[in-house]
Amino acid sequence: MNNMNKKKTTKILAAYITVFMVTAAFVMPASVAQPQNAATPFTAGPVNPKNGGALWVQDSNGLTLQLCLDPSLCFFDPVVPGNLYSERIGFGPEAFWWLGESSIKNKGFSALLVMATEFAWATEEPAPGDQFPFTRLRFRLDPPADGTYTITHPYGVDVFEGTKGVRIFVSHDIPFTAPGQNQGKIGPFLTRVYVPPDGPAPGFISKGFDDVGPVTGSPLGTNYFEVRAVDPKGLPTIDLDNNINGVQSVVRTNDFSVMGQIATRHGVQVNRADYDLDPLDPGIAVFASTSNSTPLETINVSGAGLTPTAMAAGPSDPTGVWKRYFTFIVNNVPPPSINVTNTLDPAEDPACLTGDAFGPSCESTVVYPLIDRVTITKAYFYRSTGELEILASSTDPGATLTAFADDGTELDVLTGGSLKIFNVAVPPAYVTVKSSFRGADTEPVEVGFCELAGSSNVCLRK
Description:
mainly beta, Immunoglobulin-like, ten-stranded antiparallel sheet, five-stranded antiparallel sheet, 35 strands, about 5% helix, disordered N terminus
């Protein structure tokens, strides 16, 4: 993509760059009819330790895309000079897992359709913890006359009441989370259609964003962008091509620009990793998940003093996208952290384990801090005496345990795994016990009436 095209596209996509925490629909000043949308759910993959976003996104057809960062085939904002986090991740204010666009331009009328799965930032410039991924379905129309404008697009139908000379601008920007299944107003991802022997660039869904042509992937079979206009009386008198071919109240294009890069890494999501210093059965328990792929992904656990251990693969989740993994490593001297690696992914420079000022920068290895496991066995409020009793334990006998109320107020340190607080008028709904070794547990406070609170656990009623 040349600089001129990139600047032009940047203006289109960056217009109204503010991202909204809920679906945003702006029409100035036209009104919006209830849309019909058939977009299917998509899955956001493991969190990429390098940039804090999803390592990949997968649509309902199984097409799995990574961030499109090839400078010759992908549109994305360049690195922000002097921004160390931007330099780490390799892009600036916005990048895309998938991007699609179509436009209709006639004399006196124009319409634009933008569809995207986008990586952006709450404050625009890249910063750790500020990641804001979202899906976008955007419309922009310039009505040549008052009337009703019906847009048919790959994901549904949207209807707007337009006023001559007043631009219609509607943008549905819906945030999503990783890992997990999400629902936006786009999906599955459209891909370019070619006549053999022509085809997309290897590893991509097109030849780049400048490659314009027909697409496939609409869940409705409407792989086109159409605008249909009627006047306030419901008659097709509004001309959308300035009388070039008589009154044309319906215009349609099958041409789209799309881009996306097929994922080469599946990574790993660590769901839990903790240690137990029980002298009878000491060890490290690791729970993880990754893509339910063929061939089966291989996940290994390693760390200081540990023999690299392959995790056992379990069943897939109800969506069929994820597969669960587990291992228990017998060990009574746990390291501060472990490395959980998808060894089927392309090899990475070992220097990524050290990383930079922001931490490790590997994409297929998660450096995960080990913690003890805290268990609350009792959280009870005796109404008769106003006593709150908390019992908890840690898998590390050297841990200091501290209790907190659900509003964050520190209650006190447990002694011998026990804490009793008297004269409590209003108990917390939940309590959390945190360990000095970073483990924690949260449980609801049980409420009852006891005859002899503090010296007897025989309750008359609960």
